[in-house]
Amino acid sequence: MNTYLDCLPCILRQGLEAARHTTADARIHEQLMRDLLRLTAELDLDRPPPFMGQLIHRWLRRMSGSDDPYREAKSRYNQLALAVLPELSAVVEQATDPLLAAAKFAVAANAIDLGVSGTLVESEVLAALRAAAQQPLLGDWQEFRAALEGAADILYLADNAGEIAVDRLLIEQLGPTRVTLATRGGAVVNDATQADAREAGLHRLVAVIDNGSDAPGTILADCSDEFRQRFESAGLIIAKGQGNYETLSDVAGNLFFLFKVKCPVVSRQVELPIGSHALKRPQRGQPRRREPRPGG
Question: Residue 72 — φ and ψ, nearest 5°?
């Protein structure tokens, strides 16, 4: 997915929120915004939105001297998710369709996104999780179920800390022995790293790798050779979160996106309302949508 003009104000807002989260120094806030305005003016719009997120958070880590400014918040949401997990697990066990119930919880946990909402509070997360069973999962469910039956191995691309703890419910339904969990290769926003997967106990359930990249998505050209080989050889790929959709929606393969629709641009792309819980395949054979250039 390329960057749309509507993405630009969102990039600026997210940059300012991230700066305020990282440091109280107003001089750093101002410098980031000045630099970000220059970068945005020169941005290649054919790049996906998470490319700018990667640059913003690299800049903030360098200026603040912190290698993981969201460490405390990530741990807090991991612990919150782990605390509510027995309650959610009981719902899955009692469900008529446990796989669907677990998938609904996994999507609902995608609300734990401090990049989209820097003002997220724990009560909102708990409310989203407890309402998940009543929220429809829209998209390609039957295709997904059929793909699972023929998949000898599954590569599960994680998204955020906290969310990753709830992913356990779906991974258990998929069959942990055929699942490899992939996290980000470096800290960015509250995206899950290997340290977050260990804190959530996922390393005791499945094999855990990282993608070698600190982008808030999966920019394959920025990932390690080892991860790209694993990606290309996977029988089935489940990609969590809107950042993974934005970076992989043009990639061919046996790939499904599982995420909450959080912005108008992605809403138009997947043809679902904002707030929808989505399970979508890439739109194979469809040309990339580009906005007209001035004079074009």
Answer: -65, -45
pTM higher than 0.85, yes or no? yes
Asked if residue 286 is part of any domain, the answer here is no
The strand pairing partners of 210, in sequence order, are 183
Same domain, 76 and 168: yes
Same domain, 112 and 241: yes
Mean pLDDT across 205-221: 96
Range of the domain at 140: 71-280
CB 220 within 8 A of CB 231: yes
Whether 226 and 169 map to the same domain: the answer is: yes
Q: Assess whether 108 and 40 both reside in one domain.
A: no
Is the pLDDT at 276 greater than 70, yes or no?
yes
Whether the predicted pLDDT of 148 surpasses 50: yes
Q: What is the side-by-side strand order in the sheet with 236-240? A: 137-139, 277-280, 255-260, 236-240, 154-157, 179-183, 207-210
Q: How far is CA 221 from the centre of its chain?
A: 18
Q: Which of 89-103, 105-119, 276-290 has the lowest mean pLDDT?
A: 276-290
d(CA 21, CA 176) in angstroms, rounded, equals: 36
Residue 296: band (very low, low, confident or very high) from pLDDT cuts 50, 70, 90? very low
**How many domains does one find in the chain?**
2
**Do residue 180 and residue 259 come from a single domain?**
yes
Contact 190, 73 (CB under 8 A): yes
User: What's the angle, vertex CA 99, arms to CA 96 and CA 104, rounded to 5?
Assistant: 95
Three-state DSSP state, 241 = coil
Looking at this protein, which amino acid is placed at residue 60?
L
> pLDDT confidence of 117, banded at 50, 70, 90?
low
CATH of the domain at 107: 3.40.50.10880
